Amino acid sequence: xxxxxxxxxxxxxxxxxxxxxxxxxxxxxxxxxxxxxxxxxxxxxxxxxxxxxxxxxxxxxxxxxxxxxxxxxxxxxxxxxxxxxxxxxxxxxxxxxxxxxxxxxxxxxxxxxxxxxxxxxxxxxxxxxxxxxxxxxxxxxxxxxxxxxxxxxxxxxxxxxxxxxxxxxxxxxxxxxxxxxxxxxxxxxxxxxxxxxxxxxxxxxxxxxxxxxxxxxxxxxxxxxxxxxxxxxxxxxxxxxxxxxxxxxxxxxxxxxxxxxxxxxxxxxxxxxxxxxxxxxxxxxxxxxxxxxxxxxxxxxxxxxxxxxxxxxxxxxxxxxxxx
Amino acid sequence: xxxxxxxxxxxxxxxxxxxxxxxxxxxxxxxxxxxxxxxxxxxxxxxxxxxxxxxxxxxxxxxxxxxxxxxxxxxxxxxxxxxxxxxxxxxxxxxxxxxxxxxxxxxxxxxxxxxxxxxxxxxxxxxxxxxxxxxxxxxxxxxxxxxxxxxxxxxxxxxxxxxxxxxxxxxxxxxxxxxxxxxxxxxxxxxxxxxxxxxxxxxxxxxxxxxxxxxxxxxxxxxxxxxxxxxxxxxxxxxxxxxxxxxxxxxxxxxxxxxxxxxxxxxxxxxxxxxxxxxxxxxxxxxxxxxxxxxxxxxxxxxxxxxxxxxxxxxxxxxxxxxxxxxxxxxxxxxxxxxxxxxxxxxxxxxxxxxxxxxxxxxxxxxxxxxxxxxxxxxxxxxxxxxxxxxxxxxxxxxxxxxxxxxxxxxxxxxxxxxxxxxxxxxxxxxxxxxxxxxxxxxxxxxxxxxxxxxxxxxxxxxxxxxxxxx
Lengths: 324, 471
What we know:
The complex is a heterodimer. Chain A is of the alpha/beta class.
C-alpha cells in the first residue's frame, strides 16, 4: 500500500512539474505577444476584450470573417452600421458549434452587444468539418476556461489534444501575422464558369445533405438563440450573398429557421442572391472591399438598425420579422 | 481497444487498482472480465469466437489428459486443429480463397461463383488460435498438464495485454502464473511502466510519423522513382518494427505491472548478421511457434538437404500466409525461404571471412538490405504494386527524390530512426534499464519528462491501429 501511494504520488508530481513547465512557457509566450487588431490575426480570443460594449457582434463563416480580417473592411463595416463591431466569424467554413463556443465565451467575459448578427451559410449544418472537425483551436491561445468549455461540451478528444499541443509548435510560438488591408480583386462575368461553380458547391456539401448532422448542429443554433433570448440580445440571421446561387441545403435550413422563429423571435433575411454582380466578389462566394461596402450599406445597415431600435421595447414579437 | 487510445488510459489504471485491491483468488475473475471487455470494445459479437475456441480447447485438453488410446488422443488433437484452423480459414482466408478460385472457375467455363464473405476479420484471431493450438499440442505431447480450471484457461486464451497481437504465449509460461500471488512490487511496476512508455513512444512518435511518408509512396506506387521507393522502404522497415515491437513492449509492460511475465518478442532484429539470425530476433513468439509445432515435426534440420529445403519453404510460406490472406504475404514468406536457402549455401564463404567487426557490419548491412527488399512485398497492396515498385527501384537516381511530406519532417524522421538505432546499439552492451535505474533522480526524471513531451508534441495521437491487428 505504501509503495502504491509512493508511485501514485511520484506520477502526479512528474505530471504536475511538466504541466507547470508547459504553463510557464505559455505564459511567457503570451506576455511577449503583441496586441493584435482583428485584421492582424485569425485568433478571436486574442482580440476578445473583457467587460466591453459593442454595437454589434458577428458570427459566421469566412463570408463574414472577411468583414474584419481586412483593415478597410472593418472600418467600412463599423462606419456603415454606425456602431462598434466585434467579429467572431471563422475562416475555412466556421460552423455553428464553434460559433456557439465563441458567443458563450464572449458573454462569459462580461461583454455585451446591442445585436448579434449571424451570417449563416446553410452548408454549415450538414458537415462535421466546419463543426467538430474545425481547426479553430490551432489559432487560439490556450485558455483553461475555453478548454474546459470545449471538454465539457464533449468536443472531440483529438481536437482537445490538438488545442494544447499546437501551442507548443513553431507555428504558434514563432507566429507572425501580416496585416490584411483590403481586397481589390474582382471577378468578371467571364469568371462565372458553371463547372467551377458546381465544383465549389459540391465542396461545401462533401458529406451530402446529412440529416444526422443537421439534427446535431441545429441544436447549437437553438442554444445560441436561447442564449440571446436570456440575455435580451436581438438576433439577426442573414444568409450572405454569393455567386453560387441558393445552396442545396438552403431549403430545409430556411424552413427550419422560419419554424424556429415561433419559439425564438429573430430577424431572418435571405440575401443569397441580392448581389449578382461579379465585380463585388474576389472569388465565387467572397466579397471584395467594394462588395463589403455595398452589402453593408444596402442590406445589413437597415436590419441592424431595426434590431437595435427594437431593443428594450419588450415586444419580442415585433422582432420576429422576415426581411425579404 | 487500442493501447494508444484514451479509453485504455482509463481502463488500464482501473484494472491495476482493482487487481491489487482484490484477494488473489478473485483476480482471475477480474482479469477475465477485463480481457473480454477489452476485446468487446471492438466488435462485441466476435467474442463468441474467442469463447468457442476456449471451450473446444479446454475440453480437448481435459480429454487428452484422460485418454490413453492413441487413436482417441489423435482424434481429440485433430478436433482442436480442425476447429481452430477452421475458424481461421473461414474468417481470415475464405475471402482470399474465393477471390482466387473464382477467376479459375470462370476460365473453365463454370458459372458457379462462391458467395462473398459477409464478415470482417476478427481482431487477433491468428494470435489466440495459435496460442490455444500450442496448448493442445503440448498436452497431446504430454509436456503440459491439462488445465482443469475453465476460468484460468479462458484467461490464458484471452489475457488482454497479449490477446490481439501477441506475444503468442506458451501455456507452460503463462498458466502457472495465474495461480501465483503477485504483490505490488514498486520496482517491477515502474519497470513495466517504463517499458509501456518506450513502446508507446515507438508506436506514436516513430511508427505513426513514418506512416505518413510510407503511405504516400505505397499508396501511389506508379508515381515514384527509385530513390523515393528505396527511402520509403527503409523507413517502412522501421515503421513496422516500431509499430509491432511497440505493441509488444506495451503488452509485456502492462502484464509486468500486473505481475505477469510475458516472453520477449523482439531482440534488436536489424542488428542481425544473417537471415537465420534475423528470424531468431524478429517476432520471436511466432518464429518459435513455427519451429516447435511445424518445422521440428517436419524433421527440422535432421533430414537430407532436399527435404530440409522443402521444410524451409513450407514453414516460411505458411508463416507468410499467417500474416495475411494475400499473394503479397506468400511472396514475402517465399522470399525469406529463398534467403535462408541461399544463406546456407553461402555459409562456408562467411566462415572463411572470419568474425571481424567489419565483416559483421557488412553482413548486417546485407541482411538489412535483403529484409527491406522483402518488406516491399509485405507492404504493397498487391503483387502488381510490388512489381511496379521493384521496377521503379533502378530509375531516377540522378535527381533528389520528391516526397509528399515536407523536408523538415523527413529530417525529423531520420533523427528518430538514428535515435532508435543508438538506443538499440547501447542495448547491445547489456540491458539499458538496469543501468538507467541506478542514475540520479534528476536525470531519470529529465528523461521521463523528455519522453512525455516527445510523445505529446511529436506523437501522431490519432489512435491509429497497430499494423499487426489485421493479421
